[in-house]
Write a structure and sequence with these properties.
Oligomer: single chain
Distance between the termini: 70 Å
Structural class: mainly alpha
Number of helices: 5
Length: 162
């Protein structure tokens, strides 16, 4: 009786190993397909992250207007992380057309600029907490400059994708 139970357990372990191997093979086959998305996938990813960045920026503006520098710092760090996540999400997409490749380059540059904006906003909030008004204004000015540049790059990328 114990010999039969041992064989059944071994057979179940073999089924599990086969199931795990087939799952890993399916994932390995699916990854290159996901990486070779079309220009439509690029457009969708760009729109999704653009929307997320806009929501984050709105929260930062609200915190700044209500004079909550610590909350602004936290939201600015989140903004920066979202910009870096957007860059990573955009980097894996392989556009099919020349316009798509140009739009991807513009989008990557825009999200890089947004990462700088998030860092500068966080520094501005930290300076505000320490009552360093001149430093806070300086960091906010740099953030505004990079935000304008990032906005124009992102709009150009969206125009290229139609």
């Amino acid at each position: 009786m114990t010999g039969l139970a041992g064989r059944q357990r071994a057979h179940a372990g073999g089924r599990f190993a086969l199931l795990a191997a087939s799952f890993l093979a399916a994932v390995a086959l699916a990854l290159p397909a996901a990486a070779n998305a079309s220009d439509a996938g690029l457009r969708t990813t760009l729109a999704k992250w653009s929307h997320q960045i806009a929501l984050d920026a709105q929260g930062i503006g609200l915190s700044a207007a209500r004079r909550h520098p610590r909350r602004m710092i936290r939201r600015a760090r989140h903004f920066r992380l979202d910009a870096l996540r957007a860059r990573r999400a955009l980097a894996v997409i392989q556009p099919l057309s020349a316009r798509g490749r140009r739009a991807k380059r513009l989008g990557l540059a825009a999200f890089y600029d947004y990462a700088i904006v998030g860092r500068q906003w966080a520094l501005s909030g930290q300076a505000r907490v320490r009552d360093l008004r001149a430093a806070a204004v300086g960091h906010a000015t740099i953030a505004a400059r990079y935000a304008r540049k990032g906005n124009s790059l992102l709009l150009a990328a969206k125009r290229l994708l139609g």
